[in-house]
Design a protein that fits this description.
heterodimer, A: 339 residues, alpha/beta, Rossmann fold, six-stranded parallel sheet, six-stranded mixed sheet, 48% helix, globular, B: 358 residues, mainly alpha, ABC transporter involved in vitamin B12 uptake, BtuC, SBP_2_dom (chain A), Sugar ABC transporter substrate-binding protein (chain A), Peripla_BP_I (chain A), signal (chain A), Bact_Solute-Bind_Prot2 (chain A)
Chain lengths: 339, 358
């Protein structure tokens, strides 16, 4: 043992030396601007905690991995869970069949409540029926505005994508847009299509839809540039997700176009861009609120028998417009990743 | 030694009567056919066909700045497709190449931001991480003898999960923070993501890097010992080892080259978009492989070229953007892409068959 440890430590010595040198070099290389140090340690809003008995809630969404939007929904749900003494079980799969399995999984775990997104309601019909049969209350959020009542869900928290699109279209009329490019980052997504269709419904000018490959940013950038070149009459670029709006700003300048950019959904970099005037406005469906209310709604039902919307009407969380006039207020919260 | 002894009787026997080399086996074939038999010629013709097609179908393509945009799109595919092509010539492929790009960008962004360091520190560490991932792929492959499909499918899934989980763990979000106001950013941006003007057209620097890397890869493949090793290990690993080619070194270094490519493209994405979304990159690996295959690399290894891969990536970029310039119905976008690519591959195949036929 002794013999073998000696050569090893001798071999290790230079490694340790290099690591130490690297650490020293790193310390000398600190950035004087930006970075974590400059980020304000904004304290999370802390409220009292419920004294009701511990319960378990499953939140099952159709999130694709790594989407900022869903991350915010989850944060809202987690905040509500922390306040209401709830153990939150989060799971997600963009494939409808897999999402149904996840709901089944939650039923098997005998959770006290399920919050589910209904992006593909038909695929979830069976399993939601099962949950109701086993006496687990189910609430809907985000997608499925037209189906939640048929599926006997308790309540629904979300935004009507068509309504949001229509509001967006009206806003475009107000700002005097003539021809709009609607950038869809996921081909065939029902919600995204409804947004574009909603815009087209109320907007007086022409709307051109354009599919882009949402998992490859350079490709998104050059595709939007190409489209602006192909049709120079486009004067507004509408993106359906915050990261794509920031990319669209670059495309507009690459193409030498005078088009302006507006978008659905928010994130903290987008707030900066609105402040700087690079992006005109954003329509927010308040994902944090969706996650928060869904979990809180289940808690209220369990502990006080309440129904939001009386079980008849959905609770709408959007559309809320963010532009230069109110961006400062919202920016504070967006910096924490909760708006 | 035994080989020369066996060969000697053959020398003793007089050559067959009549004019020499009439059996046609060693006859010089016409120049045109010899040219056509090069791996890059099929794809070159395909690329020209696609270019000419879109020059007619989509008037905006005739504009210089449109061409710069198409070249930019091609370069972001092409820089990564080059090492992927070398790896394929070396007989392996890498499914983790797409997400490895994002891993690299995330590493640089998070390290710089979280520790408030000069971004160059992040850039260097990201390079080390990328090379290490490549070395791990190669080492695992050589050690276990498993097919590269399985090994890199494993790393593909691991990286995909790690990208998300670590980003969420460290930043609390699924995207990294904006690093554009940090020290060294503008310098690094000049190197990885700047734009310069040529005759009134704004060209992205990645286009230049792409061509430089392509020239380098061609030189290595055709003029160096290492290039011969790549062809040898891809053709037949065992005979390569028998004639003294360092198979293990060649394979591992090829995977590390892919790591280098992933780092470069990752840095480009970071410095042109300031932040990185952790879920990106999935599916890109197939586009890189497709560009290499269209460029004349065989899936079985031992055959292919770097120049061909350049045309392969160009064709991809051209079709992808050409469809937009042509203003075709966007719902058909993917279908158009598939049809044009299949068409291109068929032209490629046909040219090669005609060229190598006697």
């Amino acid at each position: 043992m002794d013999r073998s440890s000696h050569p090893r430590s001798r071999r290790l010595a230079p490694v340790v030396a290099v690591a130490a040198a690297a650490a020293l070099t790193l310390a000398g290389c600190s950035s004087s601007s930006g970075g974590k140090k400059s980020e304000e340690g904004a304290a999370n809003a802390s409220a009292g905690k419920a004294t009701t008995p511990r319960m378990t809630v499953a939140l099952v969404t159709h999130q694709a991995p790594g989407d900022t939007f869903w991350d915010t929904v989850r944060k809202g749900a987690e905040a509500a869970a922390a306040k209401d003494n709830i153990k939150l079980v989060y799971s997600a799969d963009p494939n409808a069949g897999n999402q149904a399995n996840l709901v089944q999984n939650a039923i098997d775990q005998k959770v006290d409540g399920i919050a589910v997104t209904l992006a593909k309601p038909d695929a979830l019909k069976g399993v939601i029926g099962k949950a109701e049969k086993s006496g687990i209350p189910v609430v809907g959020l985000n997608s499925g505005l037209s189906d939640w009542k048929n599926l006997n869900l308790l309540e629904f928290f979300g935004q009507d994508e068509s309504v949001a699109g229509e509001a967006f279209g009206k806003k475009l009329n107000e700002v005097g847009a003539k021809k709009v490019l609607c950038v869809m980052q996921e081909q065939g997504n029902v919600g995204l299509t409804q947004r574009c269709d909603g815009v087209a419904k109320t907007f007086d000018g022409k709307v051109d839809p354009q599919n882009v490959n949402g998992t490859d940013m350079p490709s998104v950038k050059s595709t939007i540039t190409a489209k602006l070149k192909q049709d120079p009459s486009i004067d507004y670029v509408v993106t359906l997700g915050a990261p794509f709006a920031l990319t669209a700003v670059q495309s507009v300048s690459d193409a030498g176009s005078k088009a302006k950019v507006a978008t659905f959904d928010l994130n903290k970099d987008l707030i900066k861009a609105i402040k700087a005037g690079d992006i005109q406005f954003a329509v927010d469906q308040q994902p944090y609120l969706q996650g928060y209310l869904a979990v809180d709604g289940l808690w209220l039902y369990k502990n006080n028998g309440n129904y939001s919307g009386g079980g008849e009407q959905p609770v709408l969380t959007g559309p809320a417009f963010v532009d230069k006039s109110n961006v400062d207020k919202i920016g504070e919260f967006a910096a924490k990743g909760t708006r | 030694m035994s080989m020369t002894q066996q060969a000697e009787p053959a020398v003793d026997t007089p050559p067959a009567p009549g004019p020499k080399q009439t059996d046609g086996r060693t006859r010089q074939r016409p120049l045109a056919l010899r040219l056509l038999a090069r791996p890059e010629v099929g794809v070159f013709l395909g690329a020209v066909a696609v270019l000419v097609f879109f020059l007619f179908a989509a008037p905006p393509v005739r504009d210089g700045s449109s061409m710069a945009n198409i070249l930019y799109q091609s370069s972001t595919i092409g820089i990564m497709a080059l090492p992927v092509a070398l790896l394929m010539i070396g007989g392996e492929f890498d499914l983790s190449a797409g997400v490895a790009v994002v891993t690299s960008a995330l590493t640089a962004a998070m390290l710089s931001y979280q520790l408030t360091l000069n971004v160059w520190v992040g850039v260097i560490v990201a390079l080390l991480v990328s090379l290490a991932i490549g070395a791990f792929n190669g080492w695992l492959l050589v050690k276990t003898g498993l097919p590269s499909f399985l090994v890199t499918l494993g790393t593909f899934l691991i990286l995909q999960g790690v990208n998300l989980a670590v980003t969420k763990l460290i930043t609390g979000n699924v995207a990294t923070d904006d690093i554009s106001d940090m020290d060294g950013f503008s310098q690094a941006q000049k190197l990885f993501a700047s734009t310069f003007e040529v005759g009134g057209v704004n060209v992205k620097i990645t286009v230049v890097w792409w061509l430089v890397f392509a020239a380098l890869a061609t030189w290595v493949l055709l003029r160096t010992k290492y290039g011969n090793w790549i062809f040898a290990v891809g053709g037949n690993k065992h005979s390569a080892r028998a004639v003294g080619v360092p198979v293990t070194f060649t394979k591992i270094s090829l995977f590390m080259l892919v790591g280098f490519g992933a780092w470069f493209v990752g840095m480009h994405q970071l410095f042109s978009f300031n932040t990185v979304q952790s879920g990106e990159g999935v599916g890109q690996e197939l586009i890189y492989i497709a560009a290499a295959v269209i460029g004349g690399c065989l899936l079985t290894g031992g055959y292919g070229s770097a120049i061909g891969t350049v045309f392969g990536a160009f064709m991809f970029g051209m079709v992808q953007q050409g469809i937009v310039y042509a203003g075709w119905n966007p719902d058909w976008f993917k279908a158009f892409l598939g049809v044009m690519l299949l068409g291109a591959v068929l032209i490629n195949l046909w040219v090669q068959r005609t060229a190598t036929r006697r």
